Q: What sequence folds into this?
């Protein structure tokens, strides 16, 4: 077996009453591999005993040596090391009289073959994480399909499709799963904090430009009570001295959501929300991808703002997830 093929394998852990043993899984060939030293440790017998059993197994032609014995390269050796397949490991186990051997035979018969034949990995936690993300993607597809029919989103079909494409790429489920790289979305740390005074300056500048182009009314940016201060306070709220929205992505997503849904201004909530969202990301140097492109371009941001506007308050968590994934992807 080539050196590259070893990288395909999983680490299969056999947990006995006396400890854990790590073996190399080879799901493509539906087997596991172990060195003679691994088998010695596995069954708790002297190397001479294990060597004698293996020689006897081959002599009796109980197991085919060609398909069950491979020389493979390991990280700690310049020379190839002999590995033995599952059939040999089990055959040695049947010739070994020990509690460990009985435990392993029972475990292997009931679990290993079942997992290998069905093509499952033995990392249940990682499998469940992937299933959860598949489910999340399916729910997001349904959510965007439903919202695209809203009259306020007429003409935004392409932008919604682009959003869905970007969102699905951030998950990259199959590729990450196959390469054992499934990870939680990264969490950026905000170094710039948006405050009431700074935000009002930005809103004032935006209003001047829009009024000059006759694209806003005099009510644009006029505060609706103390709602604006409350929105900014919500972004940085704490519980038991811990921030409720600790990551940069969460703060940005909630800033956009609250500015649109809580209507802190008499007019211009969606546009102000979008401007401050971009401003916050830019000041935290989180607006652009490595390529220099915006993580969420103007068209996508328009579609996101409209989606938030027409969404049900019960769908808040879903909208926040969409925004944070787009930013972290």
A:
């Amino acid at each position: 077996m080539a050196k590259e093929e070893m990288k395909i394998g999983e680490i299969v852990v056999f947990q006995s009453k006396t400890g854990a043993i790590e073996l190399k899984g080879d799901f493509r060939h539906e087997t596991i591999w172990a060195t003679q030293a691994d088998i010695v440790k596995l069954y708790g017998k002297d190397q001479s005993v294990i060597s004698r059993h293996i020689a006897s197994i081959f002599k009796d032609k109980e197991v085919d040596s060609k398909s069950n014995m491979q020389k493979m390269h390991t990280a700690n050796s310049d020379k190839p090391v002999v590995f033995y397949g599952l059939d040999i490991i089990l055959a040695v186990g049947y010739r070994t009289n020990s509690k460990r051997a009985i435990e392993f035979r029972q475990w292997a018969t009931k679990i290993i073959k079942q997992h290998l034949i069905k093509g499952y990995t033995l990392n249940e936690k990682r499998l469940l994480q992937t299933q959860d993300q598949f489910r999340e993607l399916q729910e997001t597809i349904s959510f965007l399909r439903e919202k695209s029919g809203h009259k306020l989103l007429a003409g935004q079909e392409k932008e919604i499709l682009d959003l869905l494409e970007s969102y699905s790429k951030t998950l990259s489920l199959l590729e990450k799963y196959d390469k054992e790289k499934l990870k939680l979305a990264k969490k950026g740390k905000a170094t710039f904090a948006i405050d009431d005074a700074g935000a009002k300056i930005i809103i004032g500048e935006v209003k001047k430009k829009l009024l000059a182009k006759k694209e806003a009314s005099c009510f644009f940016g006029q505060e609706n009570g103390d709602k604006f201060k409350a929105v900014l306070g919500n972004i940085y709220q704490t519980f038991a001295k811990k921030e409720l929205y600790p990551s940069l992505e969460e703060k940005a997503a909630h800033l956009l959501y609250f500015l649109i849904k809580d209507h802190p201004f008499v007019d211009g909530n969606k546009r102000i929300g979008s401007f401050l969202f971009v401003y916050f990301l830019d000041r935290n140097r989180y607006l652009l991808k490595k390529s220099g492109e915006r993580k969420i371009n103007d068209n996508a941001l328009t579609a996101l703002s409209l989606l938030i506007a027409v969404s049900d308050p019960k769908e808040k968590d879903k909208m926040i997830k969409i925004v944070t994934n787009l930013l972290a992807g």
The mean pLDDT is 77. Residues 3-122 form one domain. The two ends are 36 Å apart (CA to CA).
